[in-house]
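re: ur question from earlier - yeah i can do the single chain one, its not a big deal. heres the input i used so u can compare w yours
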Amino acid sequence: MMARGFVAAFVAVVLDQVSKYLVLDYFREPGCGGHSVTVNSFLDVVITCNRGVSFGMFNRGHEFSALVFSLAAAAIVMVLIYWLSRVRSSYLAVAIGLIIGGAIGNVIDRLRLGGVVDSLYFPVGSWYWPAFNLADSAICIGVVAMLLDGVLGHREVGQAKGREDLLP
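and the output i got, formated as tokens:
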């Protein structure tokens, strides 16, 4: 199952980094400049740089925040890789792989640019959802898939041998 998880992680990283490259190239932006193009009434392509964590929390931090958040993400990735090594379900392996890939994609941005490049922005009327990227999407899809597996995954008693689907 580790191979499936690593393939999902690899695909998530590649798609995320390619999409960010294309957006930065379109705007001819070497880093995290503020640009925006309206595609239609519900999608804008933007360049914002999130130096904090989810939804811009702690966005106004010190210069070392990219390193701190990268180290935290690396620690989480290591725990997820350990969990992945114990999983026996393909579905759960792919879900964990998506989370790993999304985290790695965002760490690459933090180390390269000092913050995470977000480019997808969906305003709905007067409501505005924070801008995000494909790495964020991979993480969210992975988390939802894990939750669905936990809630809907019908396992017979004794099927999960050695508690391999549980965190240590």
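The beta strands are 35-40, 43-50, 116-121, 123-124, 127-128. not sure if urs matches, ping me
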